[in-house]
User: Fold these one by one.
Assistant:
Number 1:
Amino acid sequence: MDFKFKENYDFYDLVNIMQILRQPGGCPWDAEQTHKSIRRDFLEETYEAIEAIDTDNTELLCEELGDVLLQVVFHSQIEAEKEDGFNIDQVCDGICKKLIIRHPHVFGDVIAETPDKVLENWDAIKMQTKDQSTYAEMLDSVSHALPSLMRAHKVQKKAAKLGFDWDDVSGAMQKLSEETEELSEAISKGDADSCYEELGDVLFSAVNVSRFIGVDPEQSLSSSVDKFISRFKVVEELAVERGLDMKTATLEELDALWDVAKKM
């Protein structure tokens, strides 16, 4: 195998390594992968990079960004092997052109002196370059693959920029209360389809509230999950201390332990 070992490697060394792994005589596992088969890997590596950012671990971030970059190169190599596919150079060319086009205040003569003006120009240019003739198309262009809370938040922000929004958080809170009542009604009727729809409306409304109070819904929910796990751990420890089996303990007993955990 024609490969030169080096003390330090660069981007195109990574591209070359991936080509070697995919070619005959390379790695059997890498060779059989498709876009769909490594889709989850892309997601996982991205979330691990996010975790490194959240924990301010720059050493880990460097490593995880490398894993994310590997996924970009991997998908590009899969396409490069097709007769009508694209390659990594085309990927780089595309993003460079996009950055130049969407920054006319840097590479052109447009004036945008504030971040808000930059984003306003960005959205307008994006609509134009993607041939979006209606605002509804702009909303629908928000990726359907995003986590639902994130997608809802992004769609609502775009709609708000178009003037489709409450005057203040009180309107959003009122709507959340209305949707909660409708969910309660659906539950009382035992209507599964309505429960499905109304629960979605409650979550969507909760995201609207989060936007008004400046809280990221994904991070807020993640924090609540961490808090639940932390308190559950205390409840479990207390149950062991008191000789309680959590699986057979009454709801009242567990609720009492939960109250203790909250105070702790």
Number 2:
Amino acid sequence: MAKKIILWVLIILWMSVIFAFSNQQATQSKKVSSGVIKTVVKAFDFNDSLSEEELTNISEKLTFVVRKGAHFSAYALLGLLIAMLLKEYNILKAKQFLLSIGIAFLYACSDEIHQIFVKGRSGEVRDVIIDTCGAIFGVLILKLIIRIKNKAKIKR
């Protein structure tokens, strides 16, 4: 029972994190993305040879990929958490898979609708697709982990 409660709390917290990022105005959201990219690039610039202009240039080139990767990753975690919760309710495996993805898909749709009302943001079908692919990936990762654990049990 405690595991179910923990998973419910984690899912609600993670959905809240996604909502908070989606609630950022476009300028603030871009600033966060740019800051993350610059921090990572600086970490790999071992000679401190990049100027601020070069960092900005790199950031602008990587922003799209990083933002879409963030969508994918956020929903991969959401899909994984939902699948873990549904597993605790002993729902059949095929239903777990479809329900996990379906719930993540519906949340992605609601998230994109929400963004329509945020200054400078828009709702994108492409983002729903990326989010759903992320959720599928997260569920598949859980399935792989379960399969590996089951094979390890059989070997013992």
Number 3:
Amino acid sequence: MISVAIDGPVGAGKSSVARASAKRLDFIYADTGALYRGVALYAVRNGISENDADFADKISAILHEITVELKIKEGDQRIFLCGEDVSEEIRLPEISMAASSVSSVPSVRDFLLDLQRDIAKKNNVLMDGRDIGTVVLPDAQLKIFITASPEIRARRRFEELINKGVETDFEQVLNDLNRRDYQDSHRTVAPLKMAEGAVLLDTSELSFEQAVDRVVELTETIVERNRT
């Protein structure tokens, strides 16, 4: 099986590029960030705030109650939390911020680690997140770090939210993105960083199609090498 690990900051286009690339390659696409968002949604629904002094303890205490699954429905990945399809709700800005805090809790990372690795063991997979190449799949045959400037990433996220009918403003999105970047790169457990040997793909000046073409090209090189 071939594993492609894609990491990068929020709003870099990882999920969209990875999803489209996996479809062209006939690989399984695994959005690990969605798993953390699922746990974050459960915490928010149960009144647990990232500002709680005992936040990590509260999160750890509810993990036994949670089931979070990746399922493919009509060719699209859907996230199920305790049997409920929450694929749209986990994309709300407040859940995105909560997910950053949830992902810094060691017990949550342990909780989801085996699930992520099991997907890669059973499938040719293109998996994206923030610590895939460094922690989850350190032996992946291909590692890619996708990024773009903060302003461009904020603009993309702003337009995505507006298209979904979520009321927001650009400055708020940019501020949230910068705060998320800081949290992700400075957390104690599995901080966001470029994995050793990873290919840097800056999409600031690339169209979506160009970014997908590059990921597909890199992956096909690995696939061909694996055949010989």
Number 4:
Amino acid sequence: MGDVILQINDLTVEFNMYDGRFSRAPLRVIDALSMTVRAGEVLAVAGSSGSGKSLLAHAILGLLPGNASAGGEMLFKGEPLTPERIRKLRGSEIALVPQSVSYLDPLMRVGAQVAGADRSGGAKLAMKSIFERFALSEETERLYPFQLSGGMARRVLVSTAAISGAELIIADEPTPGMTLEQAVEALRVFRELADEGRAVVLITHDVDLACAFADRIAVFYAGTTVETASAEEFRAGESALRHPYSRALWRALPQNGFEPIPGRQPYAGSLPDGCLFAPRCPMATDECRSGRIPMRELRGGEVRCIHAT
């Protein structure tokens, strides 16, 4: 792996919400979240809905709503990601493949939006090549976003990031609406971009597909990271993983028995004391229910669990 491109230390994200009729109170939705992404790496971020994956992307890119605030430390190539620096880097050195296709400008033809992401010239040629890979016809560049199907729009968004020249690409659920072949091709493109020396953060529900292309998997639960493991460890099976939630996530995959996890993920504002997974964890003890559990290094990865071995 290359140099560290993105370093996040103890990130918190809070929303200033009304508490009753007139007063407001902070609602913490991301807490003590830490992760590192290096040049040449695809880091997949996995977890159930509501675990904070998309909020992480928005925090990195300075796209949180007005009633939100972020704390902790975010560094891009060793320098703090201040709001002013984010605005300068966004779209040039940091590119987003957003979850919503509404990010496409409805008043601009597709070709102008994709080619406009290319900062080094040769935009038309690069666009033609990437469109061919995603089975998008030449006519696509002359269309407006409303004329695209959902799957086409997502492929256009991936194309925009792919030719942007950005050193860090954050792909937030880039494959829904695509066929399996198109999704595999999209992830193959991200893999190739990483192999060229870029850093890719792939936010996804599809752990199976991510394991085929990612280097590491960061597992999110209730607004924080509970484990970072190699993709190889996910492929090796349950016993290679460290955290009980990661193992439960592995067992929930269709090919591994499709075993559901009892209980539900806690909501922000009603988080349990101690380990956030303790109410659902068969390994939980009294020690797990007191104080926040820190991340620690274990077997070449990281885990937030006192019982992990």
